[in-house]
Amino acid sequence: AAIATCLSDVEQHRSSQCAARIPEAGALLDLLEKCPERQQKGGFPVVVFEGLDATGKTTVTQSVKDTLNGILLRSPPDCISQWRTVFDDEPESIKRAFYAAGNYILASEIAKASTQAPVIIDRYWHSTAAYTIATEITGEVQGLPPAHDEVYQWPEDLLKPDLVLLLTVDPEERVRRLQRRGLKKTKEEAELETNSLFRQRVEESYRRMVNPACQEVDASASKEEVLKTVLQLISKHCAL
Ligand SMILES: Nc1ncnc2c1ncn2[C@@H]1O[C@H](COP(=O)(O)OP(=O)(O)O)[C@@H](O)[C@H]1O
Ligand SMILES: Nc1ccn([C@@H]2O[C@H](COP(=O)(O)OP(=O)(O)O)[C@@H](O)[C@H]2O)c(=O)n1
Predict the structure, then answer these.
(1) 2 pLDDT more than 50
(2) For a substitution probing ligand 1, which of 50, 177, 225 has the most ligand atoms within 8 Å of its CB?
């Protein structure tokens, strides 16, 4: 049922066909079936970090986790990340179904972790939605579905975080960080780098997401400054 909200009938039919063709898809669906539906959050705050690649999510989530003695999780969750490269090479709809399913599996981990400590998350539903929306159209941000369109709504059966912070840096600084990091790029990241319109569509989609909306954080400052800003926002919005 959880997957029904993120996949249309056609896509579900396709994913069962694809389960026959890709063994990993069968394993993924099995894992998803085992996740209880409509997971509830525990008593500790759940804070998500979003943003384009190299905006500093990994850096800041690690520091926030250390400062708050929290639990750090990511989407897609570690238990399915070994299948990621398989799905990244599949057609767009199958690839997105993998990430969407990953969010529901992650929700079970969040539910459990948030009974123990503050939960810090590197990407969640907003990533899946923003990258999907930005991929479905071409050209300028004017071509995106209008603000308030239902594509910008959080799925009603997916555990909601308390706070979502969207890290943004100017394009030149982002490229400098990408180069300094020097990691192997995924196909999509390489495309992002050359395709500034795509990047603008991703960021604009992030900004249109509602319920919960993303709170934007200028992450161009030093690591220490960014951490300070983020910790202030967390203490303002969440009871620690
Ligand atoms: N505030 C910052 N100022 C300068 N460099 C940063 C800052 N935050 C992160 N970086 C560097 O930028 C690169 C990308 O950061 P990372 O945390 O991996 O981003 P993401 O997880 O969003 O892809 C890394 O090399 C990191 O050390
Ligand atoms: N919840 C998620 C997480 C990632 N993704 C996809 O994964 C890509 C980024 O993942 P990544 O591991 O390279 O992110 P960074 O660690 O580089 O920030 C995005 O381009 C999305 O296509 C998604 O669709 N949904």
Answers:
(1) no
(2) 177
Pocket of ligand 1 (CB under 6 A): 51, 53-59, 177, 180-181, 219, 222-223, 226
Record the pTM. 0.91
**Residue 39 is part of which domain span?**
2-237
The structural domain count of the chain equals: 1
Query: Of all protein residues, whose CA lies closest to atom 16 belonging to ligand 1?
Result: 56
Please say whether the beta carbons of 65 and 74 come within 8 A: no
Contact by Cβ (8 Å): 48, 124: yes
**CATH number of 198's domain:** 3.40.50.300
pLDDT reading at 5 higher than 50 = no
